[in-house]
Amino acid sequence: MRQEKISFKHESLQDAKAIREVLKAINAGFAKGKLTFSDDEDEISLKPEGLLHLKVQASQEADKNKVTISFSWYNEEVK
Question: How far apart are CA 71 and CA 51, in angstroms?
Answer without folding.
Answer: 10
